[in-house]
Amino acid sequence: MDLDTLPMRHGFRLRGQDPTRLETFVDAAFAFAVTLLVVSFGAMPDTFAELYEALRRLPAFLGGFAVLALFWHGHYVFSRRYGLEDGTVMLLSMALVATALFYVFPLRMVMSAAMHFFTGGWAPRELDVSTVGEFRAVFVLYGVGFAVFALINAALYAHALRHRGALRLDAAEVVMTRSVIGTQAILAACALLSAGIALLLPRMDGWAQALPGLTYMLLAVLLPWHEIRMQRRADAALAGRIPA
Description:
It contains 9 helices and 2 strands; from the N terminus they run ββααααααααα. By secondary structure, the chain is an all-alpha fold. A two-stranded antiparallel ribbon has the order 1-2. Helix 4 runs antiparallel to helix 5 and helix 5 packs antiparallel against helix 7. The longest helix is centred in the middle third of the chain and has 32 residues. It starts with 7 loop residues before the first strand and ends in a 6-residue tail after the last helix.
């Protein structure tokens, strides 16, 4: 592998330049999951009233789409940066596909409830639960699914890090790889914290109902902090100040 001839993006050499059959399969699975997210909102509207009702569901769709796109992008970047496709990568990619296809249902329900809350009731809510136990279960399913997504992506990047010698990762690329692993770990921890809150809160009424969802707002603080910290290390590695 001639590293000098490889294209670069954001300081990282792209070792996987051509899409493989595995990547194509993962892309198709995520596209199908997005289709399920759309189809779940009903048939094509025939009247203005039905069109307006569909528009009210748009925030929940966009929120769900953003979550799926977040984890699809993690796999896409992994494929471009490392070009690995061994048994471990195939197994983890299949796990990512299975998670995406199952996760779309709790994703839709929780996202519609969240948008109903944040829009003051304007966006419709599909999360219709009759007991506290059901309410807890939905947030636990959502949180565990979110965490599984993040941990699979973290495992992919950790696998690449274990092969840094064969891939000839330089110091900056090692730091960037560890940065992604840290990001995915933060995502997983926040999701599991949300699931834990849903399980352990003694009451689930009033603002307590929103607390498991609001837990994800911690990401607005933790992710920028982590990104700034790791970017400084990457800049130092690019300047040749720390070893790989």
